[in-house]
Write a structure and sequence with these properties.
By secondary structure, this protein is α/β, with parallel strands linked by helices. It folds into 2 domains: about 180 residues, D-Maltodextrin-Binding Protein, domain 2 (3-Layer(aba) Sandwich); about 210 residues, D-Maltodextrin-Binding Protein, domain 2. The strands form 3 sheets. A 5-stranded mixed beta sheet has the order 2-1-3-11-6. Strands 8-9-7-10 form a 4-stranded mixed beta sheet, sandwiched between helices. A two-stranded antiparallel ribbon has the order 4-5. α16 packs antiparallel against α17. The radius of gyration is 21 Å and the shape is globular. It starts with about 25 loop residues before the first strand and ends with a helix.
Length: about 425
């Protein structure tokens, strides 16, 4: 039976900033994305308001996932707050590994969290992590290169158009790649991208009896299309490129198109960091006319491990970092284009924010992702770029390594798919699914 995401939280009890008398030092594990780095730079505001100090452990995405998973499953107690996402939160909440966030203050206004985000971060209607930012994925492209190629980007393009446009924009002599995409191993790196892409080709991870589906034509079509397009128009070494590597390439003017997290829009349009800031356009992630687009749904969120000795101070930090006031703080310091997107309904009702060029496309992308019905054929799992079962992270990490070996030229598509089929079925049988 397919699981569905829980409902949005109702009214909450009060936990005011003043409720913790003694100053604490809390330790937070987070990912090395730009929004998280920005948050660290504003932490003095939190300390000034509460007296609490913060120690940061900032890690690359794959390493973060490994560290926090090991720590929480072994009750290591290294962190008071963990940065996790929509995959981990419902599973860990169900396991009793996270502190419920059902007593946040009325001022925090939990009902303002976008339903898509609150649902994905809840278990049986109880919120277990608060979204720092929410995202889908979309196309970011160079308007100048698209015009030079004599093409016009549709608002909702097909994969066929994207491949043709990538080839037309590629200029190897000037180090311009028509398209930059994730090939890096890791279930949340290249694994997330190829899974979301595969949905639009009609692929799925499992049939309704939890049998692996890598021996089907849609998966073969997905991988062959991806490898062909990246060989024609992608950067050298794309097998090791993840979010941060492709962000750097795009900001340096070395990518005609980049399909990735909507949150990247503020970085590629920031003239302080991006050499192409004034010539970036946006479009929905591609489809193949089968009824499913290639956009995912995700939130980087803050959660408290059960057993933390500093629960009250940790809740104060979560309220501060995911609040409406924090959004205003970032806007005052760095402009509305740089506030954390995709988490609160009120942000998309704010006329100041809706003037930001990528605001509407971000919201449209988030609202068009359906984690309960992400595949063309019926599937037994919830999730767009993942299957929300505890075994997925381990299986998908192994499968993504096989795919990255294809991208690096170390094996064929058929070899990788055969290995993926065996890896997945063996793991599912061992876990008792069949």
């Amino acid at each position: 039976m397919k699981r569905t995401y829980g409902a949005l939280l109702g009214a909450c009890a009060t936990i005011a900033f003043a409720s913790v008398a003694a100053a604490e030092t809390i330790t937070i594990a987070t990912v090395n994305n730009g929004d998280m780095i920005r948050m660290q730079g504003l932490t003095d505001d939190f300390t000034a308001k509460t007296g609490h100090e913060v120690e940061w452990v900032t890690l690359e995405e794959n390493v973060l996932r490994q560290r926090v998973t090991t720590d929480i499953s072994t009750k290591g107690g290294a962190f008071d707050i963990m940065t996790i996402g929509m995959y981990e939160t419902p599973i860990w909440g169900a396991n009793g590994w996270l502190v419920a966030l059902d007593d946040l203050s009325p001022e925090y206004d939990a009902a303002d969290i976008l339903p898509a985000m609150a649902g994905g971060l809840s278990h049986e209607g109880t919120l277990y992590a608060a979204p720092f930012y929410g995202e889908s994925s979309m196309i970011m492209y160079r308007t100048d290169l698209m015009e030079k190629a004599g093409l016009e980007m549709p608002e909702a393009p097909t994969w066929t158009f994207i491949r043709e446009a990538a080839a037309a924009m590629t200029d190897r002599a000037n180090d311009v790649n028509g398209i930059c995409l994730r090939g890096k191993a890791g279930w949340g790196e290249g694994g997330a991208f190829i899974t979301a892409m595969s949905n639009s080709f009609g692929a799925r991870w499992f049939d309704m009896d939890w049998n692996a589906q890598f021996d089907t034509q849609p998966w073969k079509d997905t991988l062959e299309f991806f490898v062909g397009m990246m060989s024609e128009s992608g950067p050298a070494g794309y097998a090791t490129n993840g979010f941060n590597e492709n962000l750097s390439l795009f900001q340096q003017g070395k990518c005609g198109m980049w399909i990735d997290a909507t949150v990247a829009a503020s970085f590629v349009t920031n003239p302080n960091d991006s050499t192409v800031a004034d010539s970036v356009g946006f479009a929905l992630a591609p489809d193949n006319g089968l009824g499913k687009r290639s956009n995912w749904l995700w939130a980087w969120a803050l959660a408290i491990p059960a057993g933390s000795q500093k629960e009250a101070a940790a809740k104060q930090f979560i309220e501060w970092a995911t609040s409406k006031d924090y959004i205003e703080l970032v806007a005052a310091n760095e402009g509305w284009a740089n506030v954390p997107p995709g988490a609160r309904t009120s942000l998309y009702e704010n006329p100041n924010y809706m003037e930001v060029p990528f605001a509407k496309m971000t919201l449209d992308s988030i609202l068009s992702a359906d984690p309960n019905n992400s595949t063309v054929e019926e599937s037994p799992y919830v999730g767009v770029q993942f299957a929300a079962i505890p075994e997925f992270a381990g299986i998908a990490t192994e499968v993504s390594q096989e795919f990255s070996a294809v991208y690096a030229g170390q094996q064929t598509v058929d070899e990788a798919l055969a290995k993926a089929q065996a890896i997945t079925n063996d793991a599912m049988e061992a876990a008792g699914y069949k």
